[in-house]
Amino acid sequence: MMLHKLHTMKYFPLVTTLFLCSALISQAFQAVDSAQTVSSDGSYADTAQAIAYAIGKSQNGWVVTVGAPGGSYTWTNGLVIGLANSITIQGADPVNRPTILFTGPVRSGIYVSTQNNFLFLKDFIFNVATNGPAANVLDVDGNGVCFRISNCELLNSSTGIGTGTAFGLQVGSINSTHQSGPYGVVDHCQFFFPDGTVYNYVNVFANGCADGWCWTQPMTWGSTNSVVIESCGFSKPHAAPLAGLVEAMGGARLTIRYNNITNIPESVHGINSGAKSSTLQVEMYENNWMLNDTSFTMSYLYLQRGGTGVIWSNNVAETSFWNLGGVCQFWVECAATKLWQSEHCSSQLLYPGDYPATEQVGQGVVNGAAGSVPVYAWGNNFPGTTYGNFMLGEESSDAPFIQQGRDIYTNSVMPNYTPLIFPHPLVTSGGSVSTNGAGTTLGSGAVVPPSNLEAHPPATNP
User: Fold this and answer.
1) Is residue 208 part of a domain?
2) Which helix (H) or strand (E) holds 234?
3) Structural domain of 155
4) DSSP-assigned letters across all residues of 301-363
5) Per residue in 361-391, pLDDT tens?
6) What CA–CA distances, in Å, run from 295 to 203, 241, 261, 300?
7) Is this structure's pTM higher than 0.85?
8) Is residue 265 part of a domain?
9) Measured between alpha carbons, how far is 237 from 456 in angstroms, rounded to an integer?
């Protein structure tokens, strides 16, 4: 059974200046100010200068095009971008996408701070050399609805597997800024790490959870106030070692839908195995899993260790009964004798005196504080497995904390639940922005957050 370690906190956003020495580097990029476009030759230095040029204009709507169709470029440094305006960064061709190979001892291949601005990143293939980034291939930070990553392929992971910090994409950071988000959508992307060395394919934090603020904000079911992963492909040839599809902690809000997934489980942290706070809410639906590795048995398909969620209309297919040990598992770690000593627990929780455990499974936000918001599961097509479809508790000592009809309902629709419209509004906009619902294009397709996507949690709780 895999017990996840506490992830190393990442660095905080840097200033918008990408390079102090850019003036010493000859310029190859081509800019057309009237069209708000700039094109780089695909090299690291020229791309950095092109992005700095667009940011320096302090105008929303600039489009930065990188490289040539089918081009391949090796970047030996991490690209740090602090957005002062909302821009699109795109590969030269959406079909014959250019490849960026990251190499060198950097923390992340690309790190973007999107504070109060919007990033649209699309049409790339990202690969990592054996001595590549030590944590993340891509890293996005910001607040509100602030990013869309589309039509990108991530090959291989960063090199930090031994430290528990190897991620394909990381979203957000643990801090005390008390800003909702960062939220956005990852759509039509492919994640394929054949060596199985990635720790998590996508890893999600939330702002403001250094002091638990995230767990005071209302639930945002079915809204764009979530990190949405939709219409993507995730695949690995072997079920072992386990690597989380979309790992999360620190008050994260996730929506995982309409994805095709091979040999990879979904898993989220609780307060005692995560950073500062449990994952808050998970919406996981309309995904298709295929388990076809007969060499290893994946111990679970879905593991939740804190917070609440809805799990509905997922389809799981397998080529052998031995592909999967159990389907959905729910734990309260400090109430389990096998787990509490190795996790971040001062003592073992005992039922009923310690019920409910802090931010445990079946807890969400009610009237500005943690309260009962049960997990609901319905309409799923799960296969026969050794340990069954739902395991409530890792062992007998934590099982009483997660009870049917109180903390979880495994065959009931969540009352008053409505999912987010599909596709995500940022996908249907096709690179347009809107302040009135009409859809207005800025520049050459760059995106800024439509007003109806700004972070504004509902006034009432479910």
Assistant:
1) yes
2) strand 233-235
3) 60-417
4) SEEE-SBEEEEES-EEEESSGGGBS-SEEE--GGG-TTTTTTTT-SS---TTTTPSPTT-BTE
5) 999 999 999 999 999 999 999 998 888 899 9
6) 27, 12, 18, 15
7) yes
8) yes
9) 41
